[in-house]
Amino acid sequence: MKDKQHKVNSITKSVMSALFGIAIQQGYIENENVPISNYFPNIDDIKKRITIKHLLTMSSGLRWPGNEAMIPTKNWVKFILEQPVETEPGTQMKYSCGNSHLLSAILQKATQMNTVVFANRNLFLPLGIHDFNWYEDAQGIAKGGFGLTMKIEDMLKFGVLYMQNGKWNSEQLIPAEWIEKSITHNPIAESLYGYHWWTMNSKEVDGEEDKTFYAMGMGGQYIFVNQKRRLVTIFISNLSDHISSPLQYFENYILNK
Hints:
alpha+beta; Beta-lactamase; four-stranded antiparallel β-sheet; three-stranded antiparallel β-sheet; 9 helices; 11 strands; globular; EC 3.-.-.-; Beta-lactam/transpept-like; Serine hydrolase; hydrolase activity
């Protein structure tokens, strides 16, 4: 179990978020308010209002028919960009692996290197993560929404990195400001979602904010982080329902114990 890689599904999205913080810090991308038309110039005018931030907060407004519709197509990016805009960008959250896959495509265009290469150089190797797989689409773009497999101890390292505000062995791998943005829910989209991280409603304990945020993958994969308590909790499971979900277990038996 310890040495086994696990499909972490949508935890991949939270790793994508980290990579964008790094890419912005390194100057590959100006900031998250850059329109996606900088990378996809031939999109419709209404789609030119979509920014990287809209993709990160799942508020692009693009229709999402689901992975089952995208996966059989030969060109995932083309499929996503051809979807109609249903709502004004930035006004409504709609969870979509399409948004995340566009982020991976943008990162590859901006850095001129494969997402996996960029991640390995700037995130995984510094964390001592060597044993992972990140699968790609037919165009060689790392699957931004669900393509990563990792070991439990490496999921823990990623969680500890966020618990320490992006610092690892005295090196600031991810800007602390990016961490804060990522774990702050987006009020415009009216959701408990930041930049590809979920947030819980926080409360005050001893006069300080007691806030938990988490990465979540379909089927019961979780990385819970609470900076105040210096707590990182990993769940790997295979659940088809939420009757006894790790989220409820974490809240009832770990967080509120």
